[in-house]
């Protein structure tokens, strides 16, 4: 999830927001070159060609459990296996006591694994050393403990990031940066698999296939990291382009005709399309969720909404994925307060619903962790009010909290407020 500099990315001169959503694109609307390159765009697979069945009879109340940098779990690396497992049980108990019915566990933070894998090394966020066995299988325990409490457990993958800026351990010999350095690029203070490398995309798909074939998760999930968020050159303060010249030149030499931006979007579109098909092939009934940055592309925004364009900078054509049905639910990260007019919560929720011709569930991501001990902290009533807006716009839908730590710590009484107010029987 992109939290660092989130507000600065979205900020712009505050204009009067308008609650009128844009109209969905007509069925015969022109497509971009990048869309046209995807043959299945004009002939979607049968599984994605129509609206889903009626939504489940309960509101979907979820929270992300971020493992990168030990945000939510484990509380720190190197804890004994018994302590890590006790923390799993405690978080699951907190989820149930608060009123949640689903958890989204990050199982691949940076081409690593928080489960038994022959394809990628153990995550350093477990033991402090990448590649070191933690003494048990974390994902198996999470599934067992979640199921015992009636919680859904979704597996959250980062498809391209290869090393996070907080990483301290040496990379394991089995890490992709050692086994296939030609796929991996340094960008800012992170390593990133190049989405333009077909073999890198195949590797990510193989990782998801392997996990789904062996673990009875209820869904798989990807967030807003596609191409990386732009970084600036420290000296020039100019935006640094992602260093994908080798894959780009290879594409051109092979007769490719897309412009570079459309080619990058094609790479991401193709992965999302294939990921969706793979999940339903390997484990029918699996729900595939995507949690993108919260602003639609500039041309699809309500008047008055402004800020960062994931379409132009992350090469994520989320609107296309909704039109084609390459996901089972969308969780746009609506991480702004209601009063922030340039990124106003309610008009943005209306906009995403209007861009959803197949009627996929929209489960907004809520910035519950913005409740903290800083002067900029939200009050719990902000989150409760946003839940009320979601319910008025989409009765019976749902939402996701970022992240579980805020609820486990009951910051400013937020878990109590959810339990006794928003999630109370009859609420």
Kindly, what is the distance between the CA atoms of the first and last residues, rounded to a whole number of angstroms? 30 Å
Can you give the helix content as a percent range?
Answer: 25-40%
SS field, number of helical segments = 16
Order of helices and strands: HHHEHEHHEEHEEHEEEHHEHHEHEHEHH
Sheet with the most strands?
Answer: 8 strands, parallel
Average residue-wise pLDDT:
90
* Structural class label: alpha/beta
- CA radius of gyration: 21 Å
Would you mind describing this structure in some detail?
The protein has helices at 6-10, 33-36, 39-42, 81-98, 124-127, 138-148, 176-179, 198-214, 245-253, 260-282, 310-313, 318-324, 345-354, 380-393, 404-408, 414-422, and strands at 60-65, 102-108, 152-157, 161-163, 184-187, 190-193, 219-222, 231-232, 239-240, 287-290, 329-330, 365-366, 398-401. By secondary structure, it is α/β, with parallel strands linked by helices. The strands form 3 sheets. An 8-stranded parallel beta sheet has the order 11-10-7-3-2-1-13-12. It has a 3-stranded antiparallel beta sheet with strand order 4-6-5, with no helix packed on it. Strands 8-9 form a two-stranded antiparallel ribbon. The protein starts with 5 loop residues before the first helix and ends in a 5-residue tail after the last helix.
